[in-house]
Target: Carbohydrate kinase
Amino acid sequence: MTAPVLVIGEALVDIVVPAPRAPRNGNGKTTATPGGFAANVAVGLARLGVPTELVARFGTDPYGDQLGAHLFGNGVQLAPGSVDPSFRTSTATATLDPAGVASYQFDITWDPPALSRPRGCPAIHTGSIATMLEPGAGAIRKFLQSVADQPVTVTLDPNARPTITPDPVPAWAAIRELAASSDLVKLSDEDCRFFRPGASPDEIAAELLSAERTQCVVITLGGDGAIGISRDARVEVPAPAIEVVDTVGAGDSLMSALIAGLNARGLLGATRLSGLTAEDLREVVDYAVKAAAITCTRHGADPPTAAEHAAKWGS
Model:
């Protein structure tokens, strides 16, 4: 594959505030590091050897310069208009608890440049705040509708962000609409509890798989691993035992590895996951869970390279 995967969404700077008396979480210091759902996924894909183009919007202020250097340094292409000198770069404040788990507050504006699919692009990925915050959310909905008949696989990762969408009912309705245009949907157990309180992961997966296009749902379970559910298979993959430094960017790292694993099996593009077997599903989810585990052993959103993954897990 030479044409890039297209990733659409927020690129911002994570201001990570460590938990009191937890020196392993940033050595007690507040840090500012490049992040944002889309930037993290794009970097994760590039580090795993998948050509990637990012559609985002950030400025040329100090935070924007930090973001740009990070993205270019990791081989991520930027779509035209992603860097805007008139734009103030967004931030997310991630406050860690003693276990290294992050909660977020956002200072963000989301108004993307014009969206178009690069020639030959095999997959489009979006999610998180970008699919909920206007005016960008509306632009994404229209774009996904415009490529519905094109030979491209669409993946979606709708993170629960109560500070952005405090009412889960309309938020879930918006997710269902986007999921109907997506081949794979990934959620965390926290997302499930917020959007669909009282529903089991299998019930939520069944809801999403009722859409004609959706072929696969992956639900992550934190330290317990992840579940992968397709129309023909269900797999449970445990997480390896690790010492968690923090969870910043872990879900994004897992998402990158899901896309990379599907790409390695020739399941992106016009195939739209057709031919996905139970063995494929287990191996792809296992690969992704192990990528997220590596990220959790490091400070901030720092996804592994393909070589680091292979050295750690032997695959």
